[in-house]
Specification:
single chain, 6 helices, 22-stranded antiparallel beta barrel, mainly beta, 795 residues, 5-stranded mixed β-sheet
Length: 795
C-alpha cells in the first residue's frame, strides 16, 4: 500500500495533469496579465529569510489563510502540506503528526512525537501543554526532514512551528470576528494592538472562543452528542524596545477545553457482536437483559454510546524572548519558558450502550526551557549560530482500562467488587474467592467455559507514575560561502537526556467501585498500593547536518544535504500487569539524504519548489503485545523514500493557484512485533501519494469592495493505521473539498464570508485500532459537512 507505483497513483493522474496544465498556462500567458507572488519570510533557520533562500524543504501557511480556511486542529493543516498527515487519536488538542512516514504508535502522555511542535520557538513536547493554539497566528511553518541541529531531539521527522503575531509600536489596530454555523456553532475571535509608549512599548491581546454541539449524533436517548466544541484561548503579548539594539517580548497564553468528548465508531463488528458473545451467554444464564451489540440502522455519523463525559484540557504558558544586537555582526537571543498543563480524556472505547471497554486518561505536565544562542550576521563568508539549551519536564500520568463493568460475572445477583475478585482469582490463583464465584464456575464449566476465560471482565487495569526528564544540549550551525554561487553548511548538536521514572504502581481494581483487588507492579502480595522504586536512564547523542547548495544567476537554488536525527528513549506507560512490562526502549535515530530545488520564474509570477529524499530509520518505538503483557520495544530498521513538489502561480492579478504533490514509499527492513515478522510491511500513516490544490480568485472588484472565492481540495491515498498492515482497519483513499466566498469592503473596514468544509460529505477514518478480541474494530471518524457565516470588523 505504501509503495510508489502506477496503480497507487492512478487516482492522481488526471489531477496531476491538470496541475501541470495550470503551470503551462502560466508559462504561456502574457507577462502583462500576470500578478506577482508575495515573498514568504520564514524563521526555519532561526533567522528571518525568504523561503526561496532556505536550503531545506519547508512549507509555510500564512496566518490569514489559516483563519480564512478555519484551521482548528492538526488535520486541517495536514491536508495543505505534501507528505504531512495528522490524527487526533486522543481528541482535539492532542495532535499526532506523521511527516514523510515518520510517526509514532504509542500515544501515552509521557511520550514525545518524532515530529516536534514549537510555538514561538518554544518546544511543546507533551500534549497536556499544547492545547488550542490555532488563533492569532502570523504563520505556520512545516520543516521536513531531521532537524537535529537547531531543533534538537524529537525532530527526526521534522518540526511544525506556530509563530504568533507580535505587538506593534506605532498604531492602535485590531479586529473582531463573529461567526455562526451548523451544529449551533458559535465563534468569537478578537485581537487588538495597543502601543503603550510610541516606538518603545506595545501590547497585543488576542483571544478566541468557540462552542458547538457535537456532530457525532448519539442515538442513545438522554445522552449528548459526541465531538462537541467548548474552548477558549487567550494570549497577551508585551513588547519592549528601549533601543534599536534591544527588544524584549513577554507572552502569556491560557487555553481551556471542556467539551463533550469525541465518540468512537465501532465497525467490522463480529458475528457474535461487540462483546464477543459474553453478553449473550450471561443473558442465557439470566444474569443480564443485555445482549452483544450490533451496530444496525445507523449512518456513518451516528452512534449509540452510553457516555457523554467531558474532555478537559487546560494549560498556560509564559515565554520571554530577548533579542540583543551586540554589534552589526552579532545578535544574542534568549528564550525562557514555563508551561503547565492538565488533561483528562474520558473515552468510551467501545462506542456502544454496553460497558465493554472504557479508558479514561489523565495527565499533568510542567516544563521549563532555556535556549541561549549567538548568531553572526556579517557580510563575510562565514556565519554561524552557536547555542546552549536546557529543559526540564515533569509528568504525572494515570490510566485506567475498564472491562465489562456492567456484568454480574459471579451470578450472585449484584454487580460489585466480588465479580472482579472471582474472575481475577480464577485467572491468577486458580479458583474464585467467593461461594457465589465457585457456583458460577461450576455452572460455566458445565457449558465448557471458566471465569478465567473472561478475564479481566468486571475489573480495571490501573497504573500511575511520575516521570522527570532533563535535557541539555550545545549546538553549532554554520554556513561558509565558497563563492558567490556555492555555500557549504555544517550543523552539529550534542544532547544529553536523563529520564527518571518514580512511584510506578500497577493494580487490578474492581470495575464496579474501584476497590483495589491486586497489586501487579511491583507485585506486592500484601500492599495493593505498593509502588516500584525509582529508575533512571541517561543517554547522549550527536545529531547534525552537512549540506552544499548552489545559487544560480537566475535565482534558482539547488541544495543537497545529509542529516542525522534522534528521538529520545522512553519508559513504557502501558505497563499494567507485570513488572516485566516496565521496559525502557532505546532512542530512535534517522539518517537522511535530501536533494532539492527552489526557483521563481516569470518575474516572480511562478514559484516552484521540489525535494527528493531517502531515509534509513532505526529503532522505531512500538508497543509489543504478548498475550496480556505489553512492552515497549524497538523495530530494527526501516527505509523511506519520496518527494514533494509545490507550485504557486499568479495566473493574473486576481487569480492565484497553489498545488502540492507528495509521493512516499516506506518499508520495514527488519523487525518483529507480537511474534509477527514485519519485514516488507509499510509504516503506519504513510500514504503512497497525496495532493492538494488551492485557488484564490478575486471574482469581481466593485465600487463597494471585492468578492473573493477560495477553494481547496486534497487527496489522500490509502494507508495503514498499524505496522501490521491490517487491511480491515486501513484507510481508503479519499478527497476533501472546502469552499469560501468573501466580500471585503473597499477600505477593508469589514468583511463578510460564508464557508463550507467537507463539501461532498466525505466519509473517512482518522484513526483505527484492531480490537477484535472484544468483537469490533475501533474508529475515529472525520467530521461531516460543516458550514457557516462570519463577519469581521477591522479598526
Amino acid at each position: 500500500m505504501g509503495a510508489i507505483t502506477t496503480s497507487n497513483c492512478r487516482n492522481l493522474r488526471n489531477v496531476a495533469a491538470s496541475a501541470m496544465a495550470v503551470a503551462c498556462s502560466v508559462v504561456s500567458a502574457p507577462t502583462a496579465a500576470q500578478g506577482i507572488l508575495e515573498d514568504v519570510v520564514v524563521t526555519a533557520q532561526k533567522r528571518s529569510e525568504n523561503l526561496q533562500d532556505v536550503p531545506m524543504s519547508v512549507s509555510a501557511i500564512a496566518g490569514a489563510d489559516s483563519e480564512l480556511f478555519r484551521f482548528r486542529d492538526a488535520t486541517d493543516i495536514a491536508v495543505q502540506i505534501p507528505n504531512l498527515q495528522a490524527t487526533n487519536t486522543a481528541g482535539d488538542g492532542f495532535p499526532i503528526f506523521s511527516l514523510r512516514g515518520v510517526a509514532m504508535s504509542d500515544y501515552s502522555f509521557n511520550q514525545s512525537s518524532p515530529v516536534a511542535t514549537y510555538i514561538d520557538e518554544v518546544y511543546k513536547g507533551n500534549p497536556a501543554i499544547q492545547g488550542a493554539q490555532l488563533f492569532d497566528l502570523e504563520r505556520i511553518e512545516v520543516l521536513r526532514g531531521p532537524q537535529g541541529t537547531l531543533y534538537g531531539k524529537n525532530s527526526t521527522g521534522g518540526a511544525v512551528n506556530y509563530i504568533t503575531r507580535t505587538p506593534g509600536y506605532s498604531e492602535t489596530e485590531g479586529g473582531l470576528t463573529v461567526g455562526y454555523g451548523n451544529f449551533n456553532r458559535r465563534d468569537i475571535s478578537a485581537a487588538v494592538d495597543a502601543p503603550l509608549r510610541e516606538d518603545t512599548l506595545g501590547l497585543r491581546i488576542a483571544g478566541r472562543w468557540a462552542e458547538a454541539d457535537g456532530w457525532f449524533d448519539n442515538r442513545n436517548p438522554g445522552v449528548e452528542d459526541g465531538n462537541a466544541v467548548d474552548e477558549y484561548g487567550l494570549r497577551a503579548s508585551l513588547a519592549w524596545q528601549p533601543s534599536e539594539t534591544l527588544e524584549v517580548i513577554l507572552r502569556y497564553t491560557k487555553t481551556d477545553q471542556r467539551a463533550v468528548n469525541y465518540g468512537i465508531q465501532p465497525f467490522n463488528i463480529s458475528a457474535d457482536g461487540l462483546g464477543g458473545g459474553v453478553y449473550g451467554l450471561y443473558n442465557a444464564l439470566g444474569a443480564t437483559d443485555k445482549v452483544d451489540y450490533q451496530r444496525k440502522g445507523l449512518d456513518f455519523w451516528e452512534f449509540e454510546s452510553d457516555q457523554d463525559a467531558r474532555r478537559e484540557l487546560s494549560n498556560q504558558a509564559l515565554a520571554l524572548t530577548v533579542t540583543w544586537k551586540l554589534s552589526d555582526r552579532y545578535v544574542l537571543t534568549s528564550i525562557t519558558s514555563l508551561d503547565d498543563g492538565e488533561a483528562l480524556n474520558p473515552e468510551d472505547t467501545d462506542g456502544s450502550p454496553l460497558d465493554v471497554l472504557s479508558i479514561p486518561y489523565y495527565g499533568e505536565a510542567e516544563q521549563y526551557t532555556q535556549d541561549l544562542r549567538l548568531a553572526s550576521n556579517g557580510d563575510g563568508p562565514l556565519n554561524s549560530i552557536v547555542g546552549l539549551y536546557w529543559s526540564n519536564e515533569q509528568v504525572y500520568n494515570a490510566t485506567t482500562i475498564g472491562f465489562f463493568s456492567d456484568l454480574d460475572m459471579n451470578l450472585d445477583g449484584r454487580i460489585d467488587a466480588f465479580d472482579c475478585a472471582d474472575v481475577a482469582g480464577t485467572a491468577f490463583l486458580g479458583a474464585p474467592v467467593t461461594e457465589a464465584g465457585l457456583n458460577a464456575e461450576i455452572t460455566l464449566n458445565g457449558l465448557g467455559f471458566s471465569l478465567a476465560d473472561f478475564a479481566p471482565a468486571s475489573c480495571q487495569f490501573d497504573n500511575a507514575f511520575a516521570q522527570e526528564r532533563t535535557s541539555q544540549a550545545a549546538y553549532l550551525d554554520s554556513s561558509l560561502a565558497l563563492s558567490e554561487a556555492w555555500t557549504l553548511r555544517l550543523g552539529l548538536r550534542y544532547t544529553r537526556d536523563e529520564t527518571a521514572l518514580s512511584d510506578f504502581s500497577g493494580r487490578i481494581l474492581a470495575a464496579a467501585d474501584g476497590t483495589p483487588i491486586l497489586n501487579t507492579i511491583p507485585g506486592d502480595p500484601e500492599d495493593v498500593f505498593a509502588r516500584a522504586g525509582k529508575r533512571s536512564e541517561t543517554e547522549g547523542e550527536w545529531t547534525g547536518k552537512l549540506g552544499l547548495d548552489y545559487s544560480s544567476e537566475t535565482g534558482m537554488l539547488i541544495y543537497g544535504n545529509v542529516s542525522h536525527g534522534y528521538r529520545s528513549g522512553a519508559f513504557n506507560a502501558q505497563a499494567f500487569l507485570d513488572p516485566s512490562e516496565l521496559t525502557y526502549v532505546e532512542p530512535e535515530t534517522l539518517d537522511g539524504a535530501e536533494l532539492g530545488v527552489k526557483h521563481e520564474l516569470l518575474q516572480g509570477a511562478l514559484r516552484l519548489n521540489a525535494a527528493a529524499f531517502y531515509y534509513r530509520y532505526y529503532n522505531q518505538q512500538f508497543l509489543n503485545i504478548d498475550g496480556i503483557i505489553q512492552t515497549l520495544v524497538n523495530i530494527d530498521e526501516s527505509a523511506i523514500a519520496g518527494m514533494e513538489v509545490e507550485v504557486e502561480a499568479a495566473l493574473s492579478q486576481s487569480l492565484i493557484v497553489q498545488a502540492g504533490l507528495g509521493l512516499l514509499s516506506t518499508e520495514v527492513k527488519e523487525g518483529a512485533l507480537s511474534g509477527v515478522d514485519l519485514a516488507g510491511n509499510d509504516l503506519l500513516l504513510a500514504p503512497a501519494s497525496n495532493f492538494n490544490l488551492t485557488v484564490r480568485w478575486d471574482i469581481a472588484t466593485l465600487e463597494q469592495g471585492t468578492i473573493t472565492l477560495r477553494a481547496d481540495t486534497s487527496f489522500t491515498d490509502d494507508f495503514y493505521f498499524d505496522v501490521y498492515n491490517t487491511e480491515r482497519t486501513a484507510s481508503e483513499a479519499y478527497w476533501l473539498h472546502n469552499l469560501r466566498l468573501d466580500f471585503l469592503s473597499k477600505h477593508e473596514g469589514w468583511q463578510l464570508g460564508v464557508w463550507v468544509k467537507n463539501v461532498s460529505d466525505e466519509e473517512y477514518y482518522t484513526s483505527t485500532l484492531d480490537l477484535q478480541t472484544f468483537g469490533f474494530d475501533y474508529g475515529h471518524i472525520g467530521a461531516p459537512r460543516t458550514y457557516g457565516a462570519e463577519l469581521r470588523l477591522n479598526f
